[in-house]
Design brief:
By secondary structure, the protein is an all-alpha fold. Helices cover 58% and strands 0% of the residues. The longest helix is centred in the last third of the chain and has 15 residues.
Length: 105
């Protein structure tokens, strides 16, 4: 439908049912994974159902098995704090707070 003032088309285009059905079939008949070969598409579908596999290197396995922190060091620090012998560097703490304040606002 055109605009009565300017004569320019202002409505949304419409498709007839035949064109719409043809578009739907085209999309639905497309091979899986956008592949043009149906045999490759079938192989890809089978591969997708098998699941993923992750292989870790020996170093990664070792890193995963070890704790991310030194438990003995943590216990030593806890004990030093309880005894009151843990060294506190007030300047370093203040600098850390100042840096956080700058980040916040």
């Amino acid at each position: 439908m055109s605009n009565p003032i300017s004569g320019i088309f202002s409505g949304s285009p419409t498709l007839d049912k035949a064109t719409l059905e043809k578009s739907k079939r085209k999309v639905l008949d497309r091979p899986f994974d956008g592949q043009s070969d149906p045999a490759k598409a079938a192989q890809a579908k089978v591969a997708a159902t098998r699941g993923d596999e992750l292989l870790l290197s020996p170093i990664a396995k070792q890193a995963m098995s070890e704790p991310a922190f030194d438990r003995n060091k943590v216990e030593a620090i806890k004990q030093a704090i309880q005894d009151g012998s843990y060294p506190v560097n007030a300047r370093r703490i203040a600098e850390s707070f100042a840096a956080m304040e700058k980040l916040i606002g």
